[in-house]
Write a structure and sequence with these properties.
The structure holds 2 protein chains of 2 kinds. Chain A is mainly alpha-helical. Chain A has one domain. Helices cover 60% and strands 4% of the residues of chain A. Chain A contains 11 helices and 4 strands. Chain A has a 4-stranded antiparallel β-sheet with strand order 1-2-3-4, with no helix packed on it. In chain A, helix 2 runs antiparallel to helix 3 and helix 3 runs antiparallel to helix 6. The N terminus and C terminus of chain A are likely disordered. By secondary structure, chain B is of the alpha/beta class. Helices cover 35% and strands 26% of the residues of chain B. In chain B, the strands form 3 sheets. In chain B, strands 5-6-7-3-8-9 form a 6-stranded mixed β-sheet, sandwiched between helices. In chain B, strand 8 and strand 9 form a beta hairpin. The longest helix of chain B has 18 residues. Classes of the chains: A mainly alpha, B alpha/beta. Chains A and B meet through helix 1, helix 3 and helix 4 of A and helix 2, strand 5, helix 3 and helix 5 of B.
Chain lengths: 312, 289
């Protein structure tokens, strides 16, 4: 039998096929009411705000853009699956659709960056007392106040894409939000609790092994500047690498769903590599930086507990 | 004769041990083909197979000369495929234009200007040019159905697979749809699954009747209608000799059976009559078996 003569398939230039879809998804993200509410709230709480502790500022973009972005990304990803019957018969695969959605997560990332920079500008115009930064030097301060919250603004939405791909039951995004928030709240402030202080290796690992963590706490209550800042253990720089790896893991987990053949193998290899990077970063985050908690006042800094790794 | 657009050989699909398609052989060529059959006959399974979203358990499937079981060839088929499923949900927040724009991107219309022109073209084709910016959820059922049809028409497909395309359409819209499909069918293969025999009679040259996952008839529409010649008659009361009968709008009874009894008024058979007689014979043979 003769083969059917098909029209010549139009070439799809490599690298351009995700872009138009990503632009559409980015527009949808930017127009989503929950994202807009989160961005406005984040900007309001960021403008000129200095506490309760400046080193804890990153909770604001992490929640208003990262956590709400998780829900937005999950809803947008799941909503196009309502048309799965026709979407699945189109030449662009689920992997391309997922990749486009992951790229659209640049919208909350860039928004978070802009708001964080606006916040830094207001702080620069009205500098804070030096003791509010605890034991952290200029690089650590930059990581904690700029890089960590921006990564959270990307990570939440990426986790939302993965959630929509893998957990297809009503309320799945809310369940993931609650899990992340409980995980972050439980482990983020572990070094500051009396029952599990920084002398416990377990507490120190738990402190870093979280998508959100606190680096310091103070005795301020939002109405006055803290007099005492307690700096927690761990390396902010390596913590940022850890959370960046978590972002990559969320994206590759999302991409792995529905991928076939060589694409699936490539994504799988990237996932394994990111797991390795995440584990190394986690170990270094625990092993480097402060090895015990420190209390800083205007008068100076003193250690408040000895860590297992400090040898002390 | 040119090579078939679709070629099935012993194609079967089972769900939990039940055959939705029981090893069918089918060749489809350019033109409009009607697919008739009762609920559960396997029509939707067959259409999903043609739309490359469902694979066969057994047998071979060739679409546009390609094997849909192979990734690259499946993608190739999808470049020339339009598919309207029986039930099509729409993402929240999309306008008709936005949804078609999204689908056009999925169909590799990456150039914005070309995509805009193509989306406008299909919107006009289904008479939704003036509703383009309306949210889909604000459209009527018939208009939503036409949005679904428009996405299937994107890119001038070589194979158009439509499951109940006239659902929710008013008579004028159905006539308009027939016109569109007839035009597309001049250069492409159009497969229309429907319960509306009048749509098949008005639109299709060829009809395939599926029942119990098997092909019960495959031929020209006029040949199926001809199987009912002399088997349809009119009476003033229900005729107990008929396999099926119903009261028509004129007050008389239309009877279908093995043959019109002597002395009765024989009526011109319709496609619906022929289909019902075919169904009755299938059920009869199943009972006998």
């Amino acid at each position: 039998m003769t083969a059917l003569a098909l029209p010549a398939v139009h070439d799809v230039p490599a690298g351009t096929s995700v872009r138009p879809l990503a632009l559409i998804e980015a527009r949808r993200f930017a127009r989503h009411p929950l994202f807009l509410i989160g961005a406005v709230m984040c900007a309001i709480f960021s403008y000129g705000h200095q506490g309760p502790e400046e080193l804890d500022y990153h909770v604001i973009p992490s929640f208003f853009i990262g956590v709400l972005g998780l829900v937005v990304a999950a809803r947008l990803t799941a909503s196009t699956e309502r048309s799965a019957a026709v979407v699945d018969s189109a030449p662009k695969s689920e992997t391309v659709r997922t990749a486009a959605m992951c790229l659209a997560c640049l919208v909350p990332t860039v928004t978070g960056l802009a708001i964080v920079l606006m916040h830094r500008a207001t702080i620069a115009a009205n500098p804070l007392p030096e003791h509010l930064y605890g034991t952290f030097g200029s690089l650590d301060r930059l990581v904690i106040t700029v890089l960590v919250p921006v990564i959270a603004c990307a990570g939440g939405p990426l986790l939302g894409v993965a959630t929509a791909r893998w957990l297809r039951f009503p309320g799945a995004p809310l369940l993931v939000v609650l899990t992340v928030m409980m995980w972050g709240n439980f482990s983020g402030y572990v070094p500051g609790t009396s029952s599990m202080d920084s002398s416990s290796l377990f507490a120190r690992v738990l402190h870093m092994a979280s998508p959100y963590t606190a680096f310091a706490t103070g005795d301020g209550n939002g109405e006055h500047i803290s007099r005492v800042i307690t700096s927690f253990t761990g390396s902010p720089v390596w913590y940022a690498v850890w959370t960046l790896a978590l972002c990559g893991l969320a994206a590759t987990a999302a991409l792995w769903h529905g991928a076939r053949g060589e694409t699936r193998r490539t994504v799988g290899r990237a996932f394994v590599a990111l797991v390795a990077v995440a584990l190394v970063a986690l170990v270094l985050a625990v092993a480097m930086g402060n090895q015990t908690n420190f209390r800083t006042t205007e008068a100076g800094t003193r250690a408040v507990a000895l860590g297992l790794l400090s040898g002390g | 004769m040119s090579a078939p657009t679709v070629q099935l050989r012993g194609a079967a699909k089972h769900y939990r041990g039940t055959a939705a398609l029981a090893g069918i052989d089918l060749d489809l060529y350019q033109g409009v083909v009607g697919l008739l059959g009762p609920n559960g006959a396997g029509k939707t399974t067959l259409l999903r197979m043609l739309a490359t979203v469902l694979g066969a358990d057994q047998g071979s499937v060739r679409i546009l000369g390609r094997d849909p079981a192979l990734g690259a060839q499946r993608t190739d088929i999808r470049r020339w495929l339009g598919y309207l499923p029986q039930e099509l949900g729409y993402p929240r927040g999309f306008s008709a234009y936005g949804f078609l724009d999204y689908m056009a991107v999925l169909k590799e219309w990456d150039d914005p200007a070309q995509r805009r022109t193509e989306v406008r073209r299909v919107l006009e084709q289904v008479d939704l040019g003036d509703r383009a910016t309306k949210r889909i959820r604000a459209l009527s059922g018939g208009q939503r159905r036409r949005v679904g049809l428009a996405q299937a028409l994107l890119g001038t497909p070589e194979l158009l697979v439509l499951d109940e395309p006239t659902n929710g359409l008013d008579p004028e819209q159905r006539v308009s749809l027939r016109h569109v499909l007839a035009e597309v069918g001049r250069a492409a293969t159009v497969v229309v699954a429907t319960h509306q025999t009048e749509d098949v009679a008005a639109l299709c040259e060829r009809v395939v009747v599926l029942d119990g996952g098997a092909v019960r008839f495959d031929g020209m529409v006029r040949d199926l209608v001809a199987t009912a010649d002399g088997r349809v008659w009119l009476t003033d009361a229900v005729d107990p000799r008929a396999k099926t009968s119903w009261r028509t709008g004129t007050g008389r009874y239309r009877n279908l059976g093995a043959a019109a009894p002597a002395g009765t008024e024989v009526a011109e058979p319709s496609l619906e009559d022929a289909y019902l007689l075919l169904r009755a014979s299938v059920e009869g043979s199943e009972v006998a078996a």
